[in-house]
Design goal:
The structure holds two protein chains of two kinds. Chain A is an alpha/beta fold. Helix content of chain A is 45%, strand content 11%. Chain A contains 19 helices and 13 strands. In chain B, helix 4 crosses helix 16 and helix 5 runs antiparallel to helix 13. Classes of the chains: A alpha/beta, B mainly alpha.
Chain lengths: 452, 319
């Protein structure tokens, strides 16, 4: 039996070893071209010239696919050089890492939020091209929210649309209750407490999802994602700009003046159907895509939705607002056809052909002025909301920087979850800090808690 | 030794006299197992070897520098600030899910076997049905089951004080939620296997036990269970190896309500590995954690196999 089993095992062993050898060789075989091509992709110099006839791959979502088709119709000689792929852009940073590994496969133009651009701009991804040489100072000056595309002085994307936060309110109800729209967060708090007393059941906000961090903390210049350049970020949830928000929210939550649900929770939507939403600080796209499409869908109520600029903190010299989304176009630094790729993103972001009828608020101001017509006469609104949206876009500020760590998810995990367990926002500020700091450090940031 | 050769060594005379026939016999065996071997190498052993290589690799501007990292990825993995909590979470989940799974299946199988007939056959099939729903779909279905506003178990959920899905979907409830999902989608298959094994227990033995005055409970615990313990061990190995790989359930449950998260993106070691690789671009450390999972799985299997003499046959036991 010993002989038998040893022979058998020798056979098994040899078979396994030879298969492993084949496998390792195959793996090495795959790696050889990777290393060879990596030499080329590691340099950026070659990209500048490019090949005007090379085909480019464009990654978009379903909503923006027609934009590319429109470009192809407008410039038929370029049409065949553009390959459109509809993708989930959340997977884009991970895919870039894989492409870097294999040395091929990168898309040339990608539609993605600036925070995704931030993720692919680090040393490991090293994806985007500095668009500075391709965009004139004049064009740059006509963009709102372009700060979000600037990383360490490089212009790594062009803004497609903005999702600046504003203060939506129910004009009919406000008039009926005899309230004036708050201009400061202090007034907002005072009005909330008054509503809770005089009209319980009506709400002036929703704090149950992760966008509350953008809406309220982003509206207060609270340092959660303030890039100081050179991979340094300022994170300090104990900053007075943060604690004043926590205190305000705790008072409003205790009074039930803001809902503990998120704006997309069915329970909150029901408040919309029941016309109990008095005010809702939220993004610019809420009018069309949330109020019209969800809250007021069951009981269409024309002419009651008003919009105001986001409130300002009385002590601050200016208004701050963050955004819930808003995208951009970024270009691969080694694209074979930089001319076509940059022409495309410039056209997509600045041309009225596409932007004037785009689904969301254009970042390019002349295009936004043309886009105005799409909402000007919409019966949904109590008045033309465009002037407010336009001014609010100018309150987006660079200190609410685009960073590689995910503040919103951390906020949901710590603050939203804590609120559901009955804790106060103020008591969750310290755990929030402790969650954020190592996340930022893992992404290669040096974290400071005071402005140097 | 000689005795055992009589039982197992049917080929012994061939070894000396007809080596060619022996080789053909081995080759045919390999030919039959080839499809499995190819898949095992392509999707099991191959990636593991690749992970081993990657675990010593560092990245420069996204390009792999093979064997340049030394052991730094290993030290980074164990010192990562999320590593401890991921291990703690998975341990918590294993402590809950494995006993519930094993005992649940054993109890149901023994109960089914105690009363046989058409009703038992019907129940056995019924238990099997949820297993037909593939992984992620089962999780989506479970989300409805956990929602007090939609679930048929709403009165039960409300008795626990849960009014909305976000009351249920909390971090501390996660191990139990995932255990329930796993049990309802996976138990049916195991119940069928255990039931089949119980059918294999000799009727004479059971009758003898009954004649000796065995109660139904004693029959189940003292006679039937020891006769099928190998299947229990087999389930233990597979459940341990499977559950330690926890990934899809927390990932999908994270999105249970829009704009919120239950577990965060690094709840289990596999999720941490995924996050490290595809979010932070740290493939080396990610590979270390995947290898660690392979190691723990293998180690668990070895302990269980050798601790229970799982592969022993009558013949090897005799030798």
């Amino acid at each position: 039996m010993t002989l038998l089993s040893s022979t058998r095992w020798r056979f098994h062993f040899l078979a396994l070893i030879s298969l492993c050898a084949v496998l390792v060789l195959a793996a090495c075989g795959d790696n050889t071209p990777t290393t060879a091509s990596s030499g080329g992709s590691a340099t950026t110099a070659g990209a500048a010239a490019g090949d005007p006839n090379a085909t480019i791959t464009v990654w978009v979502d379903d909503t923006r696919k027609p934009a590319i088709t429109q470009f192809q119709q407008k410039f038929p000689d370029q049409a065949s050089k553009i390959k459109i792929e509809v993708v989930d852009r959340a997977a884009f940073p991970g895919k870039v890492l894989l492409f870097n590994n294999t040395g091929k496969g990168w898309p040339d133009v990608v539609f993605a939020e600036p925070n995704i651009v931030a993720q692919v701009a680090d040393q490991a991804h090293n994806y985007p091209m500095d668009l500075t040489p391709y965009v004139s100072a004049d064009i740059k000056s006509k963009f709102a929210g372009l700060d979000d595309c600037v990383f360490d002085g490089k212009l790594l994307c062009l803004r497609n649309d903005l999702a600046q936060n504003v203060l939506w309110y129910n004009k009919k109800l406000m008039d009926q209750f005899g309230y004036t729209v708050p201009k400061t967060w202090e007034d907002y708090l005072a009005l909330g407490l008054k509503v809770a007393q005089e009209h319980p059941g009506y709400v002036i906000g929703a704090v149950g999802d992760n966008q509350a961090v953008n809406m309220y903390f982003g509206g207060s210049n609270c340092p959660l994602q303030r890039s100081l350049g050179n991979s340094q970020v300022l994170i300090n949830t104990a900053d007075p700009n943060c604690t004043r928000v926590a205190d305000m929210l705790d008072k409003l939550i205790a009074a039930k003046a803001v809902s503990n649900f998120g704006p997309f929770d069915p329970d909150f939507a029901k408040l919309g159907t029941d016309n109990k939403i008095l005010m809702l600080p939220a993004a610019s796209w809420y009018g069309q895509y949330v109020f019209k499409a969800t809250y007021y869908k069951a009981n269409p109520t024309d002419g009651q939705l008003g919009v105001a600029e986001p409130p300002k903190w009385a002590a601050d010299s200016k208004t701050y607002t963050a955004a819930q989304g808003g995208s951009a176009w970024t270009v691969f630094r080694n694209t074979k056809n930089p001319k076509l790729a940059t022409d495309l993103v410039l056209w997509l972001t600045t041309s009225n052909d596409y932007q004037a009828t785009a689904p969301t608020y254009p970042a390019y101001i002349p295009a936004a002025d043309a886009w105005h017509a799409t909402i000007q006469n919409d019966k949904l609104y109590a008045f033309d909301p465009y002037p407010v949206l336009k001014t609010s876009a100018s309150y987006l500020y660079p200190e609410w920087s685009q960073v590689r760590y995910d503040v919103a998810t951390s906020y949901a995990k710590i603050v939203n979850a804590g609120l559901k367990d009955g804790k106060t926002v103020a008591s969750l500020m310290d755990p929030f800090q402790k969650d954020l700091v190592p996340l930022a450090q893992a992404q290669g940031y040096e974290v400071v808690t005071k402005t140097p | 030794m000689e005795k055992s050769a009589k039982f197992t060594g049917v080929t012994k005379p061939d070894e000396v006299t007809r080596p060619r026939k022996k080789i053909i016999r081995y080759l045919s065996a390999y030919l039959f197992s080839l499809p499995y071997l190819v898949l095992l190498l392509a999707f099991g052993v191959g990636p593991a070897i690749y992970a081993l290589i990657i675990s010593f690799t560092s990245y420069k501007e996204g390009q792999p520098q093979y064997f340049a990292a030394g052991l730094s990825n290993y030290s980074k993995a164990v010192s990562d600030f999320r590593f401890g909590s991921a291990i703690g979470n998975i341990a918590q989940f294993l402590i809950i899910s494995i006993p519930v799974g094993i005992f649940g299946v054993i109890i149901i199988a023994l109960l089914l076997h105690a009363r046989q007939g058409w009703y038992t056959d019907f129940l056995r099939t019924l238990y099997f049905v949820p297993g037909a729903v593939a992984g992620p779909t089962a999780i989506l279905l479970a989300i409805f089951m956990f929602d007090p506003r939609l679930s048929p178990f709403a009165p039960l959920l409300k008795a626990f004080g849960y009014q909305t899905i976000s009351d249920v979907a909390k971090l501390q409830n996660l191990p139990v939620m995932i255990t329930l999902i796993g049990f309802f989608s996976g138990a049916g298959g195991w119940i069928a296997i255990f039931y089949g094994a119980l059918q294999g227990v000799s009727k004479e033995l059971l009758e003898a036990a009954l004649i000796d005055g065995c109660s139904a409970l004693q029959l189940a615990i003292r006679i039937k269970l020891p006769m099928i313990y190998r299947y229990v061990v087999f389930m233990l190995i597979l459940t341990f190896a499977g559950n330690i790989q926890l990934f899809a359930e927390p990932l999908i449950l994270n999105d249970i309500s829009s704009g919120n998260t239950i577990a965060g993106p690094t709840y289990s070691p596999n999720m941490l590995s995924y996050f490290l690789a595809f979010n932070e671009g740290n493939f080396g450390t990610a590979a270390v954690i995947s290898l660690l999972m392979v190691l723990v799985g293998l180690l668990g299997a070895f302990i269980i196999i050798y601790g229970t003499k799982f592969y022993d046959t009558d013949a090897t036991a005799a030798s």
